[in-house]
Design a protein that fits this description.
The chain is an alpha/beta fold and about 475 residues long. Helices cover about 35% and strands about 25% of the residues. Strand 20 and strand 21 form a beta hairpin. About 40% of the residues are buried. Keywords: Carboxypeptidase, Hydrolase, Protease.
Length: about 475
């Protein structure tokens, strides 16, 4: 037996000595596709052995949305599979209180159902006030380092204890023959949108360097300006709600009118003194945590990620949740349960949207290795998108190639100049064979040939890199 073990060990060593230099050379060829000045960190590690190929893994990189994997792990460890966000309607003889918990999936229809239950039990009159209790969260509704120029769009929606309809407003803008534009907003959205944007030809837009611009104000007013090239179909727009509390107040006024409920008081923000003695009228519960994590990872949902981050802070420290205590809770939860030390990571949110986030590849490697080793207990790997088949990876050009499609499960991450991917090579049964990390930042390709039908350098790099990690996982 001892001789057999020595023989097998020598075989593994020979394979290692052969494969690693080969894969290293392949990585170098893949990196050659990237523009000069691009910074990258690459890792590939077989899970059944300690064979690892690394390139420039000592530095810090912006994780972008790959951070959601860490948020998912911390949430699963701390909150558990049975966790659900709750929204509760309470009442006493004259007033109501809506207790919000930061549910990122709460809809206007859910609120309507709560008030419908009130009407069926207590009639069509509220003699006092309606209180909106948002005390579960505190602090900023946007994390430090969120780009200012994206705050008006839905992927940067504020994170409040009261989130309605994803804090997102659907609209559209039309070009006009007289050179103006007009905006359509469905009437059920209690916001105001105006447009001073001009309709111009494609050539004039390019020569003027004039794009569509948005100014959003704290009272949920939106003004469009700049230029829009002539088009036959309307351009869809998605605005982030700027003031979730004001938006909720206006939505509730609409619902009360629709339900025929007369409110004699006001809709106020805060907690009534009698909150603890008020009777529970109705409760809405979100989907359970695994379903929320699936949406978060498949669709890269920032609102779910950051609502969970604040909830972790509230749950772990027993105080109103914030970005500050939420990210610290993530670090402490993961260290206490896994032994992985993230104290040197610079984390300011749980979505990865902030430009201030920084993470070492070794930290992400340890997280991925833990997920693979404990997948039976965590069940997180099956929530990740599959290359070329689902979620945010469905249409990724580098993953639609037959040599890559279906062979990776991973989480992408993108910011300005950043293109990341972390995940696993899987076999035909979907079981992980190896982990990999691709962190690429300071990526600024030449725009000289942007009009030509040429694959972008990042796509060429990714295809080559993914083929390399797949070949390594299969011992090729």
């Amino acid at each position: 037996m001892h001789c057999l073990w020595r023989y097998l060990s020598s075989i593994f060593i020979l394979l290692y000595l052969f494969i690693v230099p080969h894969v290293w050379a392949d990585f170098e060829q893949a990196k050659a596709q990237l523009p000069t000045g691009t910074r990258s960190g690459l890792v590939s590690q077989l899970l059944n052995e300690q064979q690892t190929v690394n390139q420039y893994t000592d530095g810090y990189f912006p994780p972008a949305s790959t951070l959601k994997i860490i948020t998912a792990l911390a949430s699963q460890l701390e909150l558990g599979e049975q966790f659900r966000f709750t929204t509760e309607l309470r009442a006493d003889n004259h007033q109501l209180a809506l207790i919000f918990s930061g549910d990122p999936t709460l809809t206007t229809a859910n609120l309507r159902q709560l008030f419908s239950q009130y009407r069926s039990k207590h009639g069509r009159k509220i003699s006092g006030d309606i209180w909106l209790d948002i005390s579960q969260f505190s602090g900023y509704q946007r994390a430090v380092g969120w780009p200012w120029d994206s705050l008006g769009v839905c992927y940067s929606a504020p994170v409040s204890a009261v989130n309605l309809d994803g804090n997102c407003i659907q609209a559209s803008i039309y070009t006009q023959d007289n050179g103006s534009t007009r905006v359509y907003v469905p009437p059920h959205y209690p916001v105001h949108v105006s447009s001073e944007a001009k309709t111009v030809s494609q050539a004039l837009q390019q020569s003027l360097h004039c794009d569509l611009e948005l100014i959003a104000t704290p009272n949920n007013h939106y003004q469009l300006s700049g230029c829009l090239a002539e088009r036959e179909q309307p351009l869809p727009l998605r605005f982030a709600v700027q003031n979730p509390e004001l938006y909720a107040q206006r939505v509730i006024h609409q619902l009360l009118r629709q339900l025929g409920i007369h409110l004699e008081g006001d809709i106020k923000i805060g907690q009534p003194p009698e909150i603890q003695t008020m009777a529970s009228i109705a409760i809405h519960r979100s989907a359970a945590l695994p379903e929320l994590l699936k949406i978060m990872l498949q669709d890269s949902d920032n609102l779910i990620a950051d609502s969970l981050t604040k909830t972790l802070g509230q749950h772990f420290f027993l105080q109103p949740g914030s970005f500050a205590n939420g990210t610290e809770a993530m670090k402490q939860i993961i260290f206490a349960n896994t032994g992985i030390d993230l104290q040197d990571a610079q984390l300011v949110d749980g979505s990865g949207l902030s430009r201030n986030n920084r993470l070492r590849l070794e930290s992400m490697r340890q997280i991925l290795a833990y997920l693979a080793a404990h997948d039976q207990q965590l069940s997180l790997l099956n929530l990740l998108p599959t290359a070329g088949e689902s979620g945010t990876l469905l249409y990724r050009r580098s993953m639609r190639h037959s040599s890559v499609r279906g062979q990776l499960i991973a989480k992408s991450g993108s910011l300005y100049g950043t293109h990341n991917m972390v995940g696993f090579v899987v076999n035909e049964q979907g079981k992980p064979l190896s982990l990999f990390i691709q962190y690429v930042t300071d990526y600024f390709p030449s725009t000289a040939n942007a009009h030509l039908p040429i694959e972008p350098p990042i796509t060429q790099f990714e295809l080559r890199f993914y083929q390399d990690v797949i070949n390594m996982a299969h011992g090729q």
